Inverse folding.
C-alpha cells in the first residue's frame, strides 16, 4: 500500500498513475515472469491493465486514509454516523474495495461508473490532481464543463463546487486567457429549441473566424491563407457541428453544407441570425434574399427539402443561443492556440482543432451537474447524438499486450514523443493511450 502523503509530490494525475503502474510492474516481475519481453521498467510502457490497477490502488489508499471511520462502519454493517461527510451518499464498496456512491440507481445497460461514481475526498491532493486533469481535458473551460467531465469519468468529488472553484481561480492559463474564470449563463429559447426532433433537424448557422494558416505556394499562384468556420448548432439537442471553409464564397459555403448534411443527415430548417457574425459574413457571401448567389444556396437546399429562415433584425433574443455557442467555441480554440506554435497552424491542424472543439462542446453538461446521489448521471449533447454514456467502456476481456498488437507502430510513436517531434498531435495521442 502506497502512503497517500507521497502523492503530494506529483503535480499531474497521469504521471502519478504511470509511476504507481511502474511500481506494480516491478513488484509483479519479482513474483511472476512478465508476459512478453520486458526491456526494463523505464522502457516498457505500463499496460492498460497495469494503469487501471494503479488507479484503483491510488484511490483505495486515499479512501483508506481519509475515510477510515466510514470503512470500519461499512465492514461492520452498521450505519454511518450522521456527522460523516458521506452520510448522504449511502456509500457502498465495489469488488475492488473502492467506496462508491450508493442509492438505488441500478439501471440496466449502464456500468458502475455512471450509476455509482467513485467517491473522492475534496480536500485531498488527489482531488486537486483530478480537477486539473479534467480541467485541461476540457481546454480550460469554466466550472460547469470541468465538473461535467469529472462526473462523466465516474468520479464524485465531495465538496466539488468549492474544490473546482478555488482551483480555477488559481489557474494561470485561465487568467492568461480571460482574466477571470467564466460562468455559463442560459440563453433565451427560440421556438425550435422547445420542439422534440431528432438531432440537427432545426439548425442554427453562423460563420466565425478568420484564422491565418500556413500554406505552401502552389504553381498557379498561392493558396488562400485565411480560414473561416461554419458552425451548425442543433436547436433541440444543443449539439454543434463545425466545418472549416477555405474562402468566404458561395461554393465553399455550399460545400460545407453538403459535408454537414452528409455526416449529420438532412435538416428541415436552417436559421441564421441578423444580429450575429452572419451579417458581415452574409454580406461577403452575398447571402441576400434577392441575390443570385443566395438563390444558388436555396436551390441546393430545396433539393434537400430544407428551408432557410432569416431571423428578423433587432430580434437579438433569438440569436442569444448562437452568440453563446460561438463564444464557447472561441474560448476553447483560444486555449488550443495558446498551446500551439502559431507558425505551425496549418489547415490540417486547424480542422483537427475544430473537431476537438466540437467534441469538448458536445460533452458539456446540458443541465447542472446534480449533487443528488440518486441521479449521478449527466446529460450531454454527445449522449443524445451517439447514444453512448460519458466514460469509456471497459477494455475487452483477455490479455492484450502491445507486443502482440502493434509493436512496431508503438515504438515509432514512442520515439517521436521522446524526440519531441510532432508535439502538437503525437503528444496528445500519446496521453490518450495512457
Ligand atoms: Zn484553466
Amino acid at each position: 500500500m502506497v502512503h497517500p502523503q507521497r502523492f503530494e509530490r506529483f503535480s499531474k494525475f497521469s504521471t502519478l498513475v504511470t509511476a504507481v503502474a511502474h511500481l506494480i510492474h516491478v513488484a509483479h516481475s519479482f513474483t511472476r515472469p512478465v508476459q512478453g519481453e520486458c526491456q526494463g521498467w523505464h522502457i516498457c510502457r505500463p499496460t492498460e491493465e497495469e494503469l487501471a490497477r494503479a488507479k484503483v490502488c491510488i484511490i483505495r489508499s486515499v479512501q483508506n486514509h481519509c475515510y477510515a471511520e466510514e470503512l470500519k462502519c461499512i465492514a461492520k454493517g452498521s450505519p454511518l454516523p450522521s456527522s460523516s461527510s458521506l452520510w448522504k451518499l449511502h456509500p457502498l464498496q465495489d469488488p475492488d474495495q473502492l467506496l462508491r456512491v450508493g442509492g438505488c440507481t441500478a439501471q440496466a445497460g449502464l456500468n458502475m461508473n455512471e450509476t455509482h461514481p467513485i467517491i473522492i475526498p475534496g480536500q485531498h491532493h488527489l482531488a486537486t490532481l483530478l480537477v486539473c486533469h479534467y480541467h485541461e481535458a476540457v481546454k480550460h473551460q469554466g466550472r460547469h464543463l470541468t465538473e461535467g467531465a469529472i462526473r462523466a469519468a465516474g468520479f464524485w468529488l465531495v465538496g466539488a463546487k468549492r474544490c473546482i472553484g478555488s482551483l480555477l481561480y488559481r489557474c494561470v492559463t485561465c487568467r492568461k486567457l480571460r482574466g477571470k474564470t467564466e460562468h455559463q449563463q442560459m440563453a433565451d429559447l427560440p421556438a425550435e429549441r422547445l420542439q422534440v426532433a431528432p438531432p440537427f433537424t432545426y439548425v442554427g448557422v453562423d460563420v466565425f473566424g478568420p484564422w491565418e494558416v500556413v500554406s505552401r505556394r502552389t504553381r498557379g499562384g498561392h493558396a488562400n491563407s485565411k480560414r473561416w468556420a461554419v458552425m451548425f448548432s442543433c436547436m433541440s439537442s444543443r449539439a454543434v457541428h463545425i466545418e472549416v471553409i477555405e474562402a468566404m464564397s458561395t461554393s465553399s459555403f455550399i460545400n460545407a453544407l453538403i459535408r454537414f448534411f452528409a455526416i449529420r443527415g438532412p435538416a428541415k430548417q436552417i436559421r441564421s441570425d441578423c444580429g450575429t457574425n452572419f451579417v458581415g459574413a452574409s454580406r461577403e457571401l452575398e447571402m441576400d434574399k434577392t441575390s443570385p448567389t443566395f438563390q444558388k444556396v436555396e436551390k441546393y437546399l430545396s433539393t434537400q427539402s430544407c428551408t432557410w429562415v432569416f431571423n428578423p433584425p433587432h430580434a437579438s433574443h433569438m440569436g442569444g443561443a448562437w452568440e453563446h455557442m460561438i463564444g464557447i467555441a472561441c474560448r476553447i480554440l483560444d486555449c488550443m492556440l495558446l498551446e500551439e506554435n502559431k507558425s505551425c497552424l496549418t489547415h490540417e491542424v486547424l480542422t483537427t482543432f475544430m473537431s476537438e472543439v466540437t467534441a469538448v462542446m458536445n460533452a458539456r453538461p446540458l443541465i447542472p451537474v446534480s449533487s443528488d446521489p440518486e441521479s449521478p448521471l449527466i446529460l450531454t449533447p454527445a449522449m443524445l447524438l451517439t447514444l453512448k454514456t460519458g466514460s469509456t467502456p471497459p477494455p475487452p476481456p483477455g490479455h492484450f499486450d502491445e507486443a502482440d498488437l502493434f509493436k512496431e507502430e508503438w515504438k515509432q510513436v514512442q520515439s517521436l514523443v521522446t524526440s519531441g517531434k510532432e508535439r502538437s498531435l503525437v503528444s496528445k495521442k500519446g496521453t490518450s493511450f495512457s
Notes: Residues 316-339 form the longest helix (24 residues). Residues 14 and 431 are 8 Å apart (CA to CA).
